[in-house]
Every structure is written in structure tokens, then in C-alpha cells.
Design brief:
By secondary structure, this protein is an alpha+beta fold. It is built from 9 helices and 7 strands. The strands form 2 sheets. It has a 5-stranded mixed β-sheet with strand order 1-2-5-6-7. A two-stranded antiparallel sheet has the order 3-4. The longest helix has about 90 residues.
């Protein structure tokens, strides 16, 4: 049997993302978020109260401890309330499996799935976009100037001439030493400048090389996104054309897209296998639902102060069995509805549907699928039903389905006498 293909998987992932977005916007999600905030606020108050109690004097200690204990208990009660709100949301989703799909049109416009324009993220090379800062112009310190000692004046000049000549000689020697030191310093500055220029030039060359590699990588990624979009569009065009000419594989692919569009709650995931026979125009479809143990069985959470525990109270077994069975019946009717409603062109005349749960067979230890509902429906009769007002079990019985007597116990549907197909009238 066919399984979800490339297009169906892409559509499924998109629908999962959209479902998460809708869930975040839903009133139930807002109520849960409010409960979580209340629990967090109560928890912070309790922490502050405990801290205040620790700082209190001996006379204040007892009163502070009472306040801290009270706020702690309130925080735990708020935490339990938050868990109960989340639990109610889960049960609401499971109990509303059929109602959820009646609110939307299950037809999938394949043309709308085509990519009309590919969005690319902006090219962001980070630090590679910043050129290495160029070297400023080298400025040498001024060359030392020779300053001759002033000649002696007056009558003493006649007797100090030799002394002055010695001072001049010393000044000249000092100037030569200063000039040599200056020249050495300038040479070192020049050498350092040239070395730094070379280092920066090498760094800039490496930056440009890395930038080029990064640019090429970005361009390859953009080209791949464009190629993926072209492939997607080409496959959709092929699917649309083949669907128009009743190619069985195309009909199966479309069914896959439709079923991938059917997003179930996280606590009640389903999977599908299907095959289409063109001669009979019948779709054979298997829906696998989770085992009963995968469905929550808690009635509510309650904080027990004496034990400082949040403890669950379980639903009565009867309520668990009724919820699971109703979910299976809803899943069956929902699947029939989604396929028939999505098939506007009437390619599929009948659906042979099996809803089952996978388990390990207790007798053999091998994996097996237990059929819980087996039904065949034709589109003309089924399309006349007002699904907003039906009882799923009654609808399946009306269609002549073979139904498990106790789905919760994974009792197989009895198909020994076959499945009756009820048509018009």
C-alpha cells in the first residue's frame, strides 16, 4: 500500500507548523498559559515568603513560617490547576476529532502548493564583511637639530675660547649620537610598518578568500532552494496532469496530500496506508490509531498537602473505554469524510476502510495490527449524511461496519461474515 510521498510529507510538515501556530492562538492555549502564569506567580510568592521567614527574628519566625507554608500550598494548588487545564485541553482535542475536521474544507488546491517565489535569507557574512583597517601613513619623529653652545662674550671670551671649542665638540658628538639613535628608531619604525602592512595585507587576502567561499556557499544554498522549488513545482504539475487523466499513482498521491493535511492531536497520532484500484474506483485505506495505553487516563490532579504531592485520580475504566472507542469511531468517520470531501472530481467511488491499532501479539510476541473498525462506504450515500449531527458509532453501524465490541481491550472486529456495503436507500 502507498505511504506518504515527497509532496505529502512536505505538506504534512507545513500543516504541523500551522497547527502549532493555531494552537498557540486558541482560547484553550491561552487558558493554559494563564494557569501556568498563575502557578509561577504563586511559586515566586512562596519562595519570597520562605526567604523572608529565614531572615525573620525569633519572635517573627513562627508567623513568617505560617505565611510561607500557606503561600507554598497555594503555589502547589495552582500548579495542579495548571495541569488540569492542560488535561482538559487534551481531552477536548480527542473528544472533538470529528468536529475539528468539519470546520475546514478538506479539498487541497494543488496549484496553491506551488512555490511562486523563493525567499532567501539575506547574505550575512558577519565579520568577513568588514575590511581589514588600512595602515595610517607613517610619520617619523623630527630629526634632532644641532644647537651650538653660545660663544663667550666680553673680556672673558679671550680666556674661554678653548673651553668653548670643547663645548662645541661635545655638542657635535651629542648631536651625532642623537642622530644615530634617531636614524635607528626611524629604521625600526619603517621595518615595523612594513611588517604590519604585510600582516594586514595577508589578513585582508585571507578575509577576501573566506568571504568568497562564504559567498559561494550562500549562492549554492540559494540555488538549491531554487532547485527544490522547481522540483516541487514540476512534481505538482505532473501530479495535476496525471490526476486529470486518472493515473492511479496520482490519485494515491493526492490522497496522501489530503491525509497529510489531517493533523491529529499529539496524544492521538494516526498514520495511513492506502491503495487505489482504478477498475473498481475503490480506495483501500488503513488508519492506525494509538493503543489505549497511549491515551491519557487521568481524571484530575489534586494537591495533597499532608504528603506534599500532586497526585492524579484516574478516570473510571468505563469512561476510559468510552473515550477510546468514541475516538476510534470518530477517526473512521472523519477519514471517510476527509477523502470524499477532498475528492471533488469524484475519482473515488468507494472506500474500504480499516481502523486498527498496532500492538505486540500476546500469543506470538510478534507485531500485529488489530482491526477495530472495518467499513465500506460509497461517496453518494455518505455525502448525504449531516455529520455535524451524527453519532459516529451509529453511522458506522448504519454503513454495515464490522466493529470491535471493546476497542479499549483491543478486541478485533468480527469480519467473519464480511462487511456490508450500504448504498442508497
Amino acid at each position: 500500500m502507498a505511504k506518504r510521498g515527497f509532496l505529502a510529507e512536505m505538506h504534512h510538515q507545513a500543516q504541523q507548523a500551522e497547527k502549532r501556530r493555531r494552537q498557540q492562538d486558541a482560547a484553550a492555549a491561552r487558558a493554559h498559559a494563564a494557569a501556568v502564569r498563575a502557578a509561577e506567580t504563586a511559586r515566586r510568592k512562596a519562595q519570597n515568603a520562605r526567604a523572608a521567614a529565614a531572615r525573620a527574628s525569633a519572635a517573627e519566625q513562627k508567623a513568617a513560617d505560617r505565611v510561607a507554608a500557606q503561600l507554598y500550598a497555594e503555589a502547589r494548588v495552582a500548579e495542579a490547576n495548571s495541569m488540569n487545564v492542560e488535561l482538559a485541553n487534551v481531552y477536548g482535542e480527542i473528544d472533538g476529532l470529528l468536529a475539528a475536521t468539519l470546520q475546514v474544507d478538506d479539498f487541497v488546491d494543488l496549484e496553491s502548493l506551488k512555490v511562486t517565489s523563493v525567499e532567501h535569507p539575506p547574505f550575512n557574512p558577519g565579520r568577513l564583511a568588514v575590511p581589514i583597517e588600512p595602515m595610517p601613513e607613517l610619520v617619523y619623529p623630527p630629526q634632532p637639530e644641532f644647537v651650538a653652545p653660545p660663544p663667550p662674550t666680553g673680556l672673558s671670551g679671550v680666556f674661554s675660547k678653548k673651553k668653548h671649542q670643547g663645548a662645541v665638540a661635545q655638542a657635535e658628538a651629542d648631536h651625532r649620537q642623537q642622530t644615530g639613535a634617531w636614524q635607528a628608531h626611524c629604521q625600526k619604525m619603517h621595518d615595523d610598518y612594513v611588517a604590519e602592512q604585510a600582516r594586514r595585507g595577508q589578513a585582508e587576502a585571507e578575509r577576501l578568500k573566506d568571504l568568497s567561499v562564504t559567498q559561494q556557499t550562500y549562492e549554492r544554498e540559494c540555488a538549491q532552494r531554487e532547485a527544490d522549488a522547481e522540483q516541487r513545482n514540476a512534481e505538482l504539475t505532473k501530479l495535476i496532469n496525471n490526476l486529470a487523466f486518472d493515473v492511479p499513482d496520482a490519485i494515491e498521491q493526492y490522497v496522501g496530500v489530503v491525509l497529510s493535511n489531517s493533523v491529529y492531536p499529539e496524544h492521538f497520532p494516526v498514520s495511513h496506508d492506502y491503495a487505489f484500484d482504478l477498475d473498481s474506483r475503490e480506495l483501500t485505506l488503513t488508519v492506525r490509531v494509538p493503543e489505549p495505553a497511549a491515551v491519557p487516563a487521568v481524571k484530575e490532579y489534586r494537591y495533597v498537602k499532608g504528603k506534599d504531592e500532586i497526585t492524579p485520580s484516574m478516570l473510571p475504566v468505563k469512561a476510559q473505554k468510552e473515550r477510546y472507542a468514541d475516538a476510534v469511531w470518530q477517526c473512521a468517520v472523519r477519514t471517510l469524510h476527509e477523502v470524499f470531501e477532498a475528492d471533488r472530481a469524484g475519482k473515488i467511488r468507494t472506500i474500504a476502510l480499516t481502523v486498527g491499532a498496532d500492538r505486540t501479539a500476546p500469543a506470538t510476541g510478534l507485531p500485529e495490527t488489530v482491526p477495530l473498525a472495518v467499513v465500506s462506504a460509497d461517496r453518494d450515500s455518505f455525502s448525504e449524511f449531516d455529520l455535524a449531527r451524527i453519532v459516529p458509532h451509529a453511522t458506522l453501524t448504519h454503513l454495515g461496519a464490522a466493529l470491535s465490541k471493546t476497542p479499549f481491550d483491543l478486541t478485533p472486529a468480527d469480519t467473519a461474515s464480511g462487511v456490508r456495503v450500504r448504498g442508497r436507500g
